[in-house]
Amino acid sequence: MGGFTPGVRVQVGYNLDRAIPQYLVMDPVSINDQAAIERFDLTPYRGWTLLFDMGYYAHRAFARMQDAGVSFVTRRRVQASDVVTAIREVTVKRTPEGDRLIADQTITLGSPNNRRGAVVPNLRLVTSETAQGKRMEFVTNRFDLTATEIVRLYRQRWQIELFFRFLKHQLAIMTPIGRTPQAIWLTILIAAIISVLLVLAATDRPAGLSNVQWLSALFMLLVITLQPRGG
């Protein structure tokens, strides 16, 4: 991060369908990702499916999502305890992207001996292998999708990584307008607003202009439009 020790941690809820950030929270680095997701307000996301990586892996968070009517897909930690309660036949052996489907099971996740965790029954464990031979295990509470759809759905999480790259490199979020928490938060909000504007104006962007050039043109047009006119 440019030689600086990071002073804040930003949690972004990214709407894959609309390609816009929908949830922004800035925490001090003393609050890790697991703690952040455990206190995440799930009320607005009832009926949604959340995709997140293993940095947010927490059995207590999974239990909260179950209770709140929120679905999720994430990767299983290798050291996590589970008990297989049912096995389903894998009928499709490969996804269009080349992932090989290995197993589709119902599990009870977690150990009753782990005081810091939780035991979460009736979850699904889908196991696959990438074209490069990497084994992948996905934990979800979505039983209405096929194993192939679960594996392909998690691949969509890469769009979140691309969004962060866009914030860092094109919108220069790594160079905030100041070092105070207020200045950093303002930088994050400006970047999020710009990304939303780019999505809203994308259909009207001339073919010869980049996203950044198009946004600059829209900004100048807005400035000219709002300038006071003499009588």
What structural keywords apply?
231 residues, alpha+beta, 6 helices, globular, disordered N terminus
Describe this structure in words.
It is globular, with a radius of gyration of 21 Å. Strands 3-4-8-7-6-5 form a 6-stranded mixed beta sheet. 32% of the residues lie in helices and 25% in strands. The chain is built from 6 helices and 8 strands; from the N terminus they run ββαβαβββββαααα. It has 2 domains: 32-160, no CATH class; 161-226, no CATH class. It has helices at 33-38, 59-68, 147-155, 158-170, 181-201, 211-226; strands spanning 8-15, 20-28, 49-51, 71-75, 82-88, 100-109, 120-129, 135-140. It has 231 residues and is an alpha+beta fold.
Taking the sheet with the most strands, its summary is: 6 strands, mixed
Order of helices and strands: EEHEHEEEEEHHHH
Helix % is 25-40%
Overall form: globular
Helical segment tally? 6
Whole-Å distance between the termini? Answer: 52 Å
Overall pLDDT score: 80
Summarize the structure.
With 231 residues, the chain is α+β, with helices and mostly antiparallel strands.
Task: List the topology elements.
Elements: E1 8-15, E2 20-28, H1 33-38, E3 49-51, H2 59-68, E4 71-75, E5 82-88, E6 100-109, E7 120-129, E8 135-140, H3 147-155, H4 158-170, H5 181-201, H6 211-226
Parallel strand pairs: 3-4
Antiparallel strand pairs: 1-2, 4-8, 5-6, 6-7, 7-8
